[in-house]
Amino acid sequence: MHAPMTQFTVAGRHLQVGGVPVSQLVARVGKTPFYAYDRRMIADRIAQLRAVLPTPIRLHYAIKANPMPAVVQYLSGLGDGLDVASLQEMNTALDTGMPGNHISFSGPGKTDVELKGAVASGVIVNLESEGEMERIARLGEQLSIRPLVSIRINPDFELKYSGMQMGGSAKVFGVDLERLPEMANRAAQLDLDLLGFHIFNGSQNLRAEAIVDAQNRTFCLIDTLLEQVSCKLRWLNIGGGFGIPYFPGESHLKVEPIATNLASLLDHYPWAKKTEIVLELGRYLVGEAGIYICRVVDKKVSRGVTYLVTDGGMHHNLAASGNLGQVIRKNYPVVAVEKMGESPLEEVTIVGPLCTPLDVIAHQVQLPRMGTGDLIGVLQSGAYGYSASPTAFLGHPPAGEILV
């Protein structure tokens, strides 16, 4: 069974997003397919975190999860900062009015154009290599601006049970821990304004104990590192890794043990009281607030299998098709948005219009009897949806997006 997906309200068999029936949103958008994001759910998630996290913890939104400008603008008013991974994301962040020093820029392979833009905007650059450090120092001299930087650390541990590992072994992300003291001292020689460090070593984790373990190791690592470098620590991004349930057998992450442990860490390490500690979250803030809506354009039976062919598919929602990192394909939760709770059910496979067998939205799922013109919703689609998909593949029309 799927974890309970009750975030959206239902009235008279009709699923609602932001209190508005999906069928009414179709008229508002003017077409299918489209994504709809519920702003109330985003605000509630932030409020729930604020209620349990220690007050000094700063919440940053990682734009890569969902870069829709309206979503970013909305979250800029709820959180404490934004994290970006490209020049375009940086400009989206700056357009919200968020101060540059509340924005951090991560990612390997930053170009000189990106680095120069970040320096000129007063954005904190998370350095991923010694070479990047040397380049940003030269660019700072050219602009007569002292760059704000932190060093992203590739630690000697991993975030266990993560959907995607981003640290703990040979990685393109960050600087190996053993190279840190020399690099930090070189940053001082180059007159870079080294604020602190960034550690992000895993994502999509549903086990509180694993996140607690990684955060304990992170604080211990930083404590040891401060004995070896002359950096006055003012800023520390401890990453995130908070996951959401997608598949049968998964449960919602319990945040309370993580918050309790963070409070203990802040009390235990004296330097933590003088440091801005950043928790960087993306999927956890927006993933459950989004739904992808598509329409059935054909229904057919092939050798005993009933197919619902829709106008949406992997070109808009690659993750739901199982082609964005899944080793064994599993279904995202899908619903008949205008027939909620109806019976009888039938087993169907939902596919898109693309000329490839990879374009499967859901395989052998139970739904109320559907026909041409009916609407289908793919839940848990608020993160790594539209912008993470091959939207130009086969030249089909783009999807819409709406924040409700």
Strand and helix layout:
Elements: E1 10-11, E2 14-17, E3 20-21, H1 22-29, E4 34-37, H2 39-52, E5 58-62, H3 69-76, E6 81-84, H4 87-95, E7 103-105, H5 112-121, E8 124-127, H6 130-143, E9 148-154, E10 164-165, E11 175-176, H7 180-189, E12 193-198, E13 202-203, H8 208-226, E14 235-237, H9 256-268, E15 276-281, H10 283-286, E16 290-302, E17 305-310, E18 334-336, E19 345-351, E20 360-368, E21 375-378, E22 400-403
Parallel strand pairs: 4-22, 5-6, 5-15, 6-7, 7-8, 8-9, 9-11, 9-12, 12-14, 14-15, 17-19
Antiparallel strand pairs: 1-2, 2-3, 4-16, 10-13, 16-17, 16-21, 18-21, 19-20
Helix pairs in contact: 5-6, 8-9
Question: What does this molecule look like?
Answer:
The two termini are 29 Å apart. The mean pLDDT is 93. This protein has helices at residues 22-29, 39-52, 69-76, 87-95, 112-121, 130-143, 180-189, 208-226, 256-268, 283-286, and strands spanning 10-11, 14-17, 20-21, 34-37, 58-62, 81-84, 103-105, 124-127, 148-154, 164-165, 175-176, 193-198, 202-203, 235-237, 276-281, 290-302, 305-310, 334-336, 345-351, 360-368, 375-378, 400-403. The strands form four sheets. Strands 4, 16, 17, 18, 19, 20, 21 and 22 form an eight-stranded mixed β-sheet that branches. It is elongated and about 70 Å long. The chain has 404 residues and is of the alpha/beta class.
